[in-house]
Write a structure and sequence with these properties.
298 residues, alpha+beta, 2 domains, five-stranded mixed β-sheet, three-stranded antiparallel β-sheet, 13% strand, elongated
Length: 298
């Protein structure tokens, strides 16, 4: 009963905080700071639970384990008479024809690697392969379900001197076998460390953005609006006003990539800058409605 009441209270605050408006934001000034802090932290952790659950679903441990098992089977089938030499940024293979390495994964055969000394990087799409070794490059396409023009090309000169043969494949296979046996505890440990790192880094980012936006809004109101307000109340209102930007940010991470109709690729720094500006706008709007006199109601 008490939990249900808390859930209803949280949902009510979420609904009222979603878009800054009068008169709810005016009431926030009279709310205890701790109540707003609890709301903000609850919203943050709920969104992170959804985000982490999504990543676990996308990186299903059963599928990862099956992939490792399939990769191990491919290594075990490595030909006895086949050797790949990489030296001085060039590749030489013991076969004078392309060599195909297949992966039996989830009931389907995927082409894991093609070794073709005469190929160009673009030929990976013709082979419909996850990776391609040419005489000078390692080409990778991480998108297994939809072939992409965005290929990762790594020059072989970055790899130094390497010999890949049956013995090397056997050693890697032994390591994979050990990894498969210890997979569940390793997965849990890695998942926990990753989850904590994600939560901490995202909280740090949103806390810095919220603090800076509250500081700027506080200065703006002091200088231009001549309103009597304290910084901690400005920050408290910001914890409610950030609701929509916060939800939007997590939504854009979870949903499939949206192709914007742009003729240029925006620099990466524009995205965090746009996020900060959005938080700043909503923090300003929240404080504007919170300090709006009743006679100026809109």
């Amino acid at each position: 009963m008490v939990r249900m009441k808390k859930v209803k209270s949280f949902l009510h605050i979420l609904k009222q905080s979603f878009f800054p408006s009068f008169p709810y934001y005016k009431r926030i000034i009279r709310l205890p700071f701790n109540l707003s802090l609890k709301y903000f932290l609850s919203l943050f952790f709920i969104l992170n639970i959804i985000l982490i659950s999504f990543f676990i679903w996308k990186n299903n441990p059963k599928r990862i384990k099956q992939f490792l098992y399939s990769l191990n089977q491919t290594l075990e089938k490595f030909p006895d008479d086949y050797t790949i030499y990489i030296k001085n940024g060039s590749l030489i293979a013991s076969y004078d024809r392309p060599k195909f390495f297949w992966l039996d994964y989830l009931g389907k055969k995927e082409l894991l690697l093609v070794v073709d000394e005469s190929a160009t990087p673009e030929k990976i799409n013709m082979y419909d392969s996850l990776s391609l070794l040419t005489s000078k490059e390692l080409v990778i396409n991480f998108n297994l379900t939809k072939r992409s023009n965005k290929l990762y090309v790594l020059p072989l000169k970055n790899f130094g001197e390497i010999t890949i043969n049956k013995n090397e494949a056997f050693l890697v296979s032994k390591t994979l076998n050990l990894l498969i046996k210890l997979f569940i505890p390793l997965y849990i440990i890695i998942a926990l460390i990753t989850a904590m790192a994600i939560i901490f880094s995202l909280f740090l980012i949103i806390a810095i953005y919220l603090f800076l936006s509250s500081f700027f809004v506080f200065i703006i109101f002091k200088l231009f609006f001549k309103r009597k307000l304290s910084f901690h109340k400005t920050f408290q209102i910001g914890m409610h006003a950030v609701t929509f930007p916060l939800i939007l940010n997590y939504f854009l991470v979870i949903v499939p990539k949206i192709n914007l109709p742009l003729t240029f690729k925006p620099p990466f720094f524009l995205f965090p800058l746009a996020y900060f500006i959005l938080i700043l706008i909503f923090t300003f709007a929240g404080n504007y409605f919170a300090h709006l006199p009743n006679r100026d109601k809109i």
